[in-house]
Write a structure and sequence with these properties.
The chain is built from nine helices and eight strands. The strands form three sheets. A four-stranded antiparallel beta sheet has the order 3-6-7-8, with no helix packed on it. Strands 1-2 form a two-stranded antiparallel ribbon. A two-stranded antiparallel ribbon has the order 4-5. GO terms for molecular function: efflux transmembrane transporter activity; porin activity. InterPro entries: OMP_efflux (IPR003423), TolC-like (IPR051906). It is found in: Cell outer membrane.
Length: about 450
């Protein structure tokens, strides 16, 4: 595996990966930081946080003066005429007169202003908008933690696959060495050809296993690069100490369940529901607003704009608008009751989540302890299997052991190594879960 840097973009390790002549080791911290800068989920959570500010600005705009300018030009091909009936003073008879109102052309421009003076729903909305921004901030932290967990697990699985490849390569090399020894014994007439054939079959099987292990490693590498948001064609290289065990450091991590991001997200959701309820309660409150307008009209026989002969007039109005809710059939009360149910559900979800997180914490602690015991047992088993293999090889060369015993010893040693590799992966996965249960996943970035 090879991992290569293109360049360091900022001091905070905002870097791009590509194939260059310089090779660098990809640590877990670098993998996580790369994912936090490049993975879709991390980018979207940052956009959500940025969008929250725009939502606040949108709600705040409702508390600011609203100014609108309106203009229109109207042409009236047929002007309405009205009949006015008057009494002729000379004759005492009624006389009807047809009078035309208006001009063919009319222009109107109007400036309208409105300002909320008291609107409880608007004030509650402003507070809810600020809380929404806080929610997106916490939700971004939760998204980051979920991404860290995903990348860490994928990272350790790549290393475990790499160990599997190294184990098969080691066993293959050992079997090929024995094959050469048996070949010499056969040539000297001290061993049977069937022993050489059986060893050749073992070598061929190990070659097939090696190819399978390499394929699995490539798949795991691609999974890691996808989890990081990295180009799938990039090459990566992991450090040798990836599976270092430090159980004492885990014990020293403090546990703060109330500070878990999952809890804080649910608490913010509950707070938003409370504010939503207050917004519905605000429907009981009256609203008061100011409005005003200033207009200008002109009339003419021809197009009125820039027409010096047009008749011009101005008008204006100022007003206070008071709206008092009296009765809406119980609609507001029903809506408030629905909000109360949503709040109760959110609180039930919060308590259940706390219980689940407590259980996960205890399970992670238990899994770490069991994994440590398994690792210690498997390490001893690998050492013992290696001693058995060495002794069996020596006995076979001296005619004190059969080929079957030698092959069995090789298989036992390979199984012991694979068991150790699997137990190391189990420990690192449990380690991530324990760190997560203590609310300290960010330590995987800051180490």
């Amino acid at each position: 595996m090879r991992f290569k840097f293109l360049s360091v973009i900022t001091a905070s390790l905002l870097f791009s990966w590509s194939q260059t002549s310089a090779q660098e080791i990809l640590t877990l911290q670098q993998a996580v930081k790369f994912a936090l800068d490049n993975k879709k989920e991390a980018k979207n959570s940052k956009l959500d946080l940025e969008n929250a500010q725009y939502q606040i600005d949108e709600v705040r705009s409702g508390a600011l003066p609203q100014i609108t300018g309106v203009g229109s030009v109207t042409y009236n091909p047929l002007i309405q005429q009205n009949v006015i009936v008057m009494e002729d003073p000379a004759t005492g008879q009624s006389v009807s007169t047809v009078i035309q109102f208006g001009q063919p052309w009319q222009a109107n421009s109007n400036l309208q202003v409105s300002q909320q003076i008291f609107n409880q729903a608007l004030f509650t909305g402003l507070k809810a908008a600020r809380t929404t921004r806080e929610f997106y901030q916490v939700n971004k932290e939760l998204t980051d933690e979920q991404l860290i967990e995903k990348v860490a697990n994928a990272y350790y699985q790549v290393f475990q696959s790499q160990l599997q490849v190294e184990t098969v390569e080691s066993n293959l090399g050992n079997t090929e060495k024995n094959q050469r020894v048996i070949q010499g014994l056969v040539d000297a007439g001290l061993a049977k050809k069937i022993d050489l054939d059986r060893t050749t079959v073992q070598v061929n099987n190990l070659n097939a296993q090696l190819q399978q292990a390499k394929n699995a490693l490539e798949i795991q590498e691609n999974a890691l690069k996808f989890a990081m948001g990295m180009d799938i064609t990039a090459q990566i290289d992991l450090p040798d100490e990836t599976f270092a065990i430090d159980a004492q450091a885990l014990e020293n991590l403090p546990i703060d369940l109330d500070n878990r991001t999952e809890i804080r997200v649910l608490e913010k959701q509950t707070e938003l529901l409370e504010l939503d309820k207050k917004a519905k309660i605000a429907d009981y409150y009256p609203t008061l607003s100011f409005s005003g307008n200033l207009g200008y009209m002109s009339f003419a026989q021809r197009f009125p704009i820039f027409n010096g002969n047009a008749t011009k007039t101005a008008y204006s109005a100022l007003g206070l608008n008071l709206s008092i809710p009296i009765f809406n059939g119980g609609k507001t009360k029903s809506q408030i009751s629905q909000k109360n149910i949503e709040i109760l559900r959110a609180k039930v979800e919060l308590e259940d989540t706390k219980l689940a997180l407590t259980m996960a914490s205890e399970n992670a602690r238990t899994q770490v302890k069991n994994s440590l015991l398994t690792i210690n047992s498997n390490e001893g088993n690998v050492k013992l299997a290696k001693e058995v293999l060495d002794n069996t090889e020596n006995n076979y060369k001296n005619g004190l052991a059969t080929l079957t015993e030698l092959l069995d010893a090789e298989n036992a040693y390979a199984d012991a190594q694979n068991n150790l590799n699997n137990s190391l992966l189990d420990y690192k996965v449990a380690e991530v879960q324990l760190i997560k249960s203590k609310g300290n996943l960010k330590t995987l970035v800051n180490e």
